[in-house]
Amino acid sequence: MSEARIYYDEKLIQSFERALRSAYSLPYVQLTRRSSKATGRFNVVITSGPRQFQAADAEDVQNLVEVCGAGIPLETFWVAFKANFDLWEHGQHLLEHISVSLFQQIATGDLISMFRAEWDSRAATDSTHSHAQPHWHFAMGADEFRAILGSAEPLQERAVEFAAGMQTDLGLVDFSGFHFAMSPLWYGDVPSSHRQIFQSSEELGSWFHNLSTYIAEQLAYVSEKTGARPGVVSDFR
Where are the alpha helices (DSSP H) in 108-200? Predict the structure, then answer.
């Protein structure tokens, strides 16, 4: 399997911005750029936002912006973006990893991690790597379950006790590490069909645009199915 070589450049970052703006109706969203002093690894993220989050295994904080658009309720869904680059060769920075994280705002105003879509260029070219690339992660862990179950006031004490025991007493498996294949070429019955490589910035940009558009369409779809109305905060229970 040939190796992907997608390097940092302004055209690539602009394609990510266009996808975020069009898919989530965020005309003014901007992404950070590489510092002129960058000599090693750095991240491209949303420059600013009214909400933030920090993953348990990350040192940096990411900005969140609200997802808008037809059929999507206000104050309900939030999105974060991150593209990780590292110095590779001849002063160029190689794209290592790209991800989009989705959050839901519940009735308490708290944000709950829902799922994450990502692609890792290194894993995609590693013959020993068994995870699908690209893939989805179900990101709701024990803490998120506790937040949701504990938000019902009359059942709060019992709900917290239930949430605390879900992964012990009930033997609930944490699915946040499960890699759900996004678009595997299994129909071709070829080796490593679950690992896909984008050979150019144009291919990657097209994938990201279509991914973002699909996410927005699905958010509108589930909102309609659950009866959520624009402007009304729902906890989707």
Answer: 121-124, 142-149, 156-165
Full-model pTM? 0.81
Read off the pLDDT band of 231 (50, 70, 90).
very low
- How is the chain split among helix, strand and coil, in percent rounded to 5? 30, 25, 45
Residues 231, 236, 237: CA angle, nearest 5 degrees: 140
Burial zone of 192 (CB within 10 Å; 0-12 exposed, 13-18 middle, 19+ buried): middle
Which residues have CB under 8 Å from 140's CB, separation 6+?
Answer: 112, 113, 114, 115, 176
For residues 224 and 70, the answer to whether their CB atoms sit within 8 Å is no
Cα–Cα–Cα angle for 137, 145, 151, nearest 5°? 140
DSSP E strands, the chain: 42-45, 51-53, 62-66, 77-89, 92-105, 111-120, 135-138, 179-181
pLDDT tens for each residue of 10-46 = 999 999 999 999 999 999 999 999 988 878 899 999 9
Give the residue from 22, 20, 24 showing the smallest Cα distance to 77: 24
End-to-end CA distance of the chain: 45
Percent of the chain with pLDDT over 90: 42
DSSP string over 195-212: B----SHHHHHHHHHHHH
The residue whose two tokens read 């989707």 is 236
